Amino acid sequence: MPSDLPQEVVDQVVDHLWDDIPTLLACSQSCCALFPATRVHLFSTIRLGDSGQYRRFQQLLQTSPYIARLVRKLTVSGSLVDDPDAWVGQIPSLLEQLVMVDELELTKLYWEVLQSRTNSLTRFAALKRLVFSDVSFATPAQIQTLLGAIPNVAELRVQNVTCGPVDTPLTYPILTTLPTSLHHLLLDSGNCHEVIVDSLLSAGCVSDLCTLSVRWADPWKDERQTEYLSDILPACGASLEQLCIELPQLMSPADVWHMGLNLEHNANLRALRVDGLVLPKSCAWAVEILSHICSPHLETIDFSMYVSYFTDIYSMEWARLDSILAKDLFRGVAVTFHVRLQGGCGTASNAAMVLNSFLPELKERGKLTVSSF
User: Measured between alpha carbons, how far is residue 322 from residues 262, 282, 287, 312 in Å?
Assistant: First the structure.
């Protein structure tokens, strides 16, 4: 189909369809003018979930090698079974072919399968974004090896990642190739948070961190897991702008103070989210942390809480929270409570009415919102 439109205009039109795969496929088969623009989006993200998909993609690269330069993001999902899929071990070799990939997501696999070959992590040095979800490391040393292979990663997301037991005390040698451009770090569940944070701190890799999110799968256990936060928060300093935390429910305000969990060093903090509050269990630590905020740039504070019985709402230290949020420092700050009410224990409108009555100063000087989820 001939067209009088310049190719640049055609490309811009197709760009608006970047996430509509069926339409992109239809356009790619309609005329030659649309094919170059559509293939950029069709092959920008490749997802491999089994050996069949891996084999077909390799065959496609052999018949159409130009596709390798179109891939920007690779997602690999293996299977955490006793006999891990052999094809997963070929991913480092595949990355060598995909020279433009700067985002990698790995899910449900054993790390030692990827690291089984010499120089298997060479291509990781070009990555800008790396996501691990349900990945198992045999030893903490493997995690350190990984961190040393990703010097240019700006975003690192670690979700439910585990490593094997440590037989001897860990040492954290300074590795000059650690990610020194890290801006976004997420640690969600798993048991390797301390290894990652200590390695990053030893090389001074968190001084430019602007987003930090830390959560635990079981926030009722071992408060010692949170001790590294007292190191990473001051190390981030004024660069930290967004913080999301979920701490063990049994922590007391005294624990928070003793561990040095405060935000006094984070003078440019703009957004704070406190997750996993379960009423009526003690949530006083969340109020204690708020009392140490010193950032004049704060814009939003979000609380996420679970309520089994409506009367449990009264267990929160609302009077102290209101007095803290009434400070001039919090004037105009948007505070949102995301309340999850168990079935039959009340309605969101009732919760909103109660919280509005508990926080009169905040309601007058700031912006209070109550929502359900």
Answer: 19, 17, 10, 18
